[in-house]
Every structure is written in structure tokens, then in C-alpha cells.
Amino acid sequence: MTLDLSRMQSKVRKWAEWTAQLNAIASDPDGKDFLSEVLSSNGNSPKVGLATSPKRRAQKTTNRINAIWQACGSFQQPFGLRDLIEALQKQNFQFKRGDPNIEIGWALRELLADSKLTVTRERHGTVGRLYQRVSP
User: Fold this and answer.
1) pLDDT at 99 over 50
2) Closest CA to 75 of 118, 126, 106
3) Would you say 119 and 125 are in contact if contact means Cβ atoms under 8 Å apart?
């Protein structure tokens, strides 16, 4: 097996460049404050330059849950996750996550926690839960 030293040397040079850039940032008082803020939070630093504030994102989430809640009201009988997804797709609901099952499942858990829905049949094998909207 041949060891490719040129690739490793290239990476070492790149790391040396990055280290020099970080040292230059750290030598500036504002840069030092920035680095300490970003690095002191154990990787949970706030994202810089977010387009929406947390309050705005919370409002968007509430609006999405309310839209799903309204769709739940269109069912006269207990309904399942797939029924709800089909109803929302007919209303041209825009799913923000890749998998509608995850987004709707998350919203259903929120509605259950708020006692806006009840479970009429628990999951059994491959048959999913059935939900029913609680009258407001």
C-alpha cells in the first residue's frame, strides 16, 4: 500500500493557513470577542445572521399547527396520519420538511399535548393510530 504524502502535506498546509487566519482574528479585540462567543458555547452557538427571529419562527410554527388543526376538523370520523396528509395535499399545503409524515406527526403530537386531539385507536402492528378532534 502506497502512502500519498502530497495529499497529507496539502492538508497540513491548509491547516497552517487556517491557524494563521484564526491568530489574526484573535489578535483583534473585536475578533477575540467574536471567537470567545462562538467557541465558548460548546458548539451550541447562535447562528449568525438568521433571517427570522425566534419569535417570528415560533409564529410560523403556530400558523402551521393551526392549519393542520383546521384540516383535522374536516373529518367526521376518526382519521389517520395518511388521511390527514391526503387532505392537506388537496388543500395545496406546503410541507416544509422532506417527509410529510414527520411534519404532520410532529404537529399531531403537539395537538395531543394541548388536548386538542384524542387517540381513538392506538397503533397495532402496521396499523397506525386513529385520531379525533376534540370539540373546541
Assistant:
1) yes
2) 118
3) no
Annotated domain spans of the chain:
8-39, 54-133
Q: How far is CA 119 from the centre of its chain?
A: 25
CA 43 to chain centre: 17
CA separation for the pair 73, 59 (Å, rounded) = 21
The H or E element that residue 39 is part of is: helix 29-39
Residue pair 131/120 in contact (Cβ under 8 Å)? The answer is: yes
Per CATH, which fold does 54-133 belong to? Arc Repressor Mutant, subunit A (1.10.10)
pTM confidence score: 0.51
Cβ-contact 107, 62 below 8 angstroms: no
Residue type, 40: S
Give the DSSP letter of residue 135. Answer: P
